[in-house]
Hints:
Number of helices: 0
Order of helices and strands: EEEEEEE
Radius of gyration: 18 Å
Strand order of the largest sheet: 1-2-3-4-5-6-7
Strand content: over 45%
Structural class: mainly beta
Largest sheet: 7 strands, antiparallel
Helix content: under 10%
Number of strands: 7
Amino acid sequence: AAHALVTEPSIYGIGAKVQATPELEFSFAYRGADRDLDKDNTTVQSTSISTQYQITEDINIHLGYAQGDDTDKTKRQLENNFYGQVWYQVTDSRSVRFEFENADYGSDGSANVVVMSMRQNF
């Protein structure tokens, strides 16, 4: 019933992060968007969970999983998304990251992304 009260496009989200130990944290996020176009009223939503762990003072790992849905079935559908990052702090001002992601779009196929980067602070 409240959905009919929204007459403009909107974006909404809610999330939480829990620090289990000084080295370990967990997070959850729900995001949605209501397109509310003149001819249709489609929504997009996604849910994700992730964890981050400080392995040593110099090494951090972050892993996550997400899934999504779009009520407009003519759009590409994100079924599942698995992602991660390993961050190595080389010096106080330099870090190296390895990131990966696998996005599964169901019948539309899947995509894999791998990135290696270095960050230098001046």
